[in-house]
Amino acid sequence: MTRAAGGPTGASRRGFLKVGAAAAGGLLLGFRWGAADAAARQFAPNAFIRIDRAGKVTLVMPNQEMGQGIYTAHSQLLAEELDVPLARVVTEAAPPDDELYGGPRKRQGTGGSSSIRAGFFPALRQAGADARALLVLAAASQWNVDPASCRTADGRVFHDPSARSADYGELADRAALFPPPKTPAPLKSPKDFKLIGKSVHRLDTPAKVNGSAVYGIDVMPGAVRVAVPIASPVVGGTALSVDDSRAKAVPGVRQIVVLDDLVAVVADHSWAAMKGAAALDIVWNEGPNAAIGSAELWRDLRRDSAKQGVNAKSEGTPDSALADGDLLEAAYEMPFLAHAPMEPLNCTVHVSGGGCEIWTGTQVQTKARAEAAKVLGVAPEQVTLHNYMLGGAFGRRLDVDMVNTAVRIAREVDGPVKVMWTREEDMRHDVYRPACRNIMRATLKDGRIHGWSHKVAAGSVSARMSGKPLKDGLDKGSVEGATEMSYDIPHQRIDYVQVEPRALRLGWWRGVGPNNTIFAIECFVDELAKKAGRDPVDFRLKMLGNEPRLANALKLVAAKSNWGDPLGSRRGRGVAIQNVFGSFLATVAEVEVDEAGEVRVHRFVSAVDCGTVVNPNGVVAQMEGGLIFGMTAALFGDITVAGGRVQQGNFNDYRALRINEAPRVDIHLVASSEAPGGIGEPPTTAAPPSIANAIAAATGIRLRRMPVDRDVLAGRKPA
Amino acid sequence: MQASLTVNGSVHSVDVPDDMPLLWVLRDMVGLTGTKYGCGIGMCGACTVHLDGQPVRSCLLPVGSVGTRAITTIEGVGQTPVGARVQKAWLDIEVVQCGYCQSGQIMSASALLAQNPAPNDDDIDAAMAGNICRCGTYCRIRAAIKNAAAGRE
After folding, report:
1. How many whole angstroms separate alpha carbon A526 and alpha carbon A130?
2. Contact between residue A587 and residue A604 where contact means Cβ atoms under 8 Å apart
3. Does pTM surpass 0.80?
4. Are the CB atoms for A687 and A634 separated by under 8 Å?
5. Which residues of A touch B139 (CB under 8 A)?
6. What confidence category does residue B79 fall into, taking pLDDT thresholds of 50, 70 and 90?
7. Which residues have a Cβ under 8 Å from the Cβ of A136 and sit 6 or more positions away?
8. What span, in angstroms and rounded, lies between the C-alpha atoms of A155 and A86?
9. Which residues of B touch A621 (CB under 8 A)?
10. What does the mean pLDDT of chain A come to?
11. ipTM of predicted assembly, 2 dp
C-alpha cells in the first residue's frame, strides 16, 4: 500500500489567509486555513468551490444571472468535473474581484455573450477537476491507499478494492489541508459527461416560480427607507428651485435630497416616496439640450454621415471596384432604443464609517464598487457589494450610473436607503442604443458582389463610457459585424463616422454593434440579390465558400423553413445570417402584412451553430427570447425626443410585445464540438433584418428604417 | 387606516393610507416581495394577485377597496392544486429566464385555469396579454399553460 503523496502539512507552511468581508458566508480566497483555524476551516480549494462538513457544495458564480441561464451552465461545468450532483449545489454570487472572477481578461463583468466562450469553459472545468483531485488525495491519505485506485461519483470518493467510500463532506476538513495541485488535474473526456451538454434543469428557477427569489429591488422590505429620484428631464439640466411642501405633506416622507441634477424624496416606504416624488414642484434650468428634438438628431446624423470618416477596413481595390459593374446604393437607419428590463433600476446603499455597503443587481461588480468608492473618495476595499440576480438587463446594468446616483443620495441620508427608480425615471434616463445610419454601396458583376462599401455613422458607446476620445477616430464597436463579414467579397471598405447625439446618453443594448451592421448588411444583400435576379439564399450561399459553418446553417434553415414553398398572398419569407460572438446563425422570418400595414410575424426558424453547447435547452431559450426581443424592436422600438426630453416613459408609449403577438419559434441546433460561441445576443440581431426581408418578399416594399412604418406598408406614405 | 388583510390564509393588521396600492402594502408592510413592481400603471401585469381567486393588478388597487376579500399572492398560490400544477408546468419545460415577470404570469395563468380548465389559444391570449415578458418567454408560457391544463407531465 502506498502512502498518498503530498500529505497534509502544518499550519506554518500555509500561505496567508484572505477572508472575504461577509465573514459568516466566509469566502476564502485562494488559500486555505491552517490547522489552527479548525473551527472555521472549510474546504475552499479555489475561488469557485466551497464544501462544508455537512457536504453542502457552494459554487461561486463569477458572472451574474440575468435570465440567460449562466448560474446553471457555470454550475454544470464545475459540478461535472467535481463529480457532484446538481441537486447538492447552491450558488452564490461572486463578490467584486477582477483577479479571481474576471476570467482571462481579468475584468469582471457579464455581457458580450461571453460567459461561456471567454475562457470560463476550460477554467471552471479545471477548478472542478482540481478540487476533486484534492478530495481524492484526502481520502487516499486517510485510507493509506494510492489515489489512482480511487474513483469518484455523486459527491463521494470510492476505494473499490477495500469497499470504502466517503462523502465529500466527511473529507472536507482533511482536504482543506492539502496544497493546490502542482499540475492541473486531468479533465473528463466528453464521452463521460453527465451534465455538460445536457438540458439539466436550471438552479435558479424554482425560487423564481414561488416568489422567493430576491432581486435588488426586494432587499430589506419595510426595513429600509426608500428614495425615489427625479432627475432633470433634459440631460445636463440642473434643479433651479424646488418646492417640496406638497411632497413633505405626504405621510411617511422624511427628507428631500436636492442635488444638482436630481431631487430625491426619502420616505419610510416605497409608496410614500413615489407619491412624494410625484408631488415635487421642481423648476429646472434645462440647459442647451432643451433645444434638441428628434428632427435635430436625425438632421445631424444624416448630415454628418456624408463625411468621409475613418477607414476601419480595406480589402482589394474597393474604390475602383465600385466603379466597375452594376451599382446599387442604399442607406439604412436604426432608431434609439430603451432597455426597459422588467425590474426597474434600483440600488440600496448604506454609507457609514468611511465606506459603504451596497445591495443591487449589476452586470459589472468591480466597476460598481469602484464607482461607489470614487463618489465617496475612498479605496474600493471600503465598499462591500452584494450582487443579486437581475430582473433583466439587456446591457442596461453594464452602466454604473445607478450606483453613482444612489451613493450620492445615500450619503445625505442616515442609515441605509433603497434608491428606486420609477418606470418613468428608468425609461427616460436610460443609456440608449445608438441611432445609426449606414451608407451602403455595392457593384454586381457576373451575378456576384464585386465591390462593397459600408459606412457606419453613429455615436460611440465606448467613448461615452470610457470618457476618452476614440483612438484615430475609430469606434470598433460600431463597425463590429461589418469588418468581419463572412461573405467572400473581394473588394470592400468599411468606414466609420463618429456622430454624437446631443441630449441622449448612449449605452450597450443587447446585440450591440452587430444589431445595426447586420441589419444593414443583410437587407442590402437581399436588395442586391433581387437586382441580380437571384434567390436570396442561393445568392448568399455562393459567397460563403470561406465560411462552411455559416453556409451549413443557412442550408439547414432553408430546408427547415420550407424556403421556396409558396405562401399565401401578402405573406413572405426573409432570411438573415450572421457570424458574431463566435456563433453562426441563419434565421428565416415568415410574416404577413395586412392592408392596414400591420405586420404579423407568424414564425421564426433558426439554425444555430454555436459550437460546444453546455445546456441545449438554455441555448434554445436564448434563441426564442432574443428573437422576440429583437422583433419587439423591429415592430415598435423608437425613442423620440422633444424639447430635450425623451418622450416615452412607460409601457403605454413604449410598446412591448405581448403573448398574443408572439410568433412560433423553431430552433435547430447544429451539433458541434468546436469551441463554444456566445448566444445571449446574436438572436436579437437576427430578427429585424429577417423581418424586413420578409416584408419585402410579402409586399414588394423595401423598408430601410426600423421600426416598421405601417403607413408606408399601407401605401399611405412613400417608402 | 387600520386594515385587516387576509393574505394567503393569514391575517395581517396594517396601518396604511386608504389609497396605498395593495402592491406596496404587500411588499413593504406585509413583507411579501414576490409580487413585483414593473410599471405602476397596470400595463405590465407583474403585480398580479388574486382577490377571491380573481386576478387583479395590485399596483392600481387601493388597499381601502380590498375589504374582506381573500388575497392570494405568488407565495401562496402553490397551496392550491391549480397553482401547484402551474408552477410545476413552468419548471418542467423551464419557462423562466430572468423571472421578474413570472410571479404575475403564474398568477394570471392560475386564474385562467381555475376558471377554464381547457383554454384554447384565444383564451390564453386574452388572459395573458396583460403580462409583459421582456425576456420573451411567451412560447413557453403558452406551452406550459397547455401542459398544466392537460395534466401533462
Report:
1. 51
2. yes
3. yes
4. yes
5. 624, 662, 664-665
6. very high
7. A147, A150, A152, A157
8. 10
9. 94, 97, 137, 140
10. 93
11. 0.98
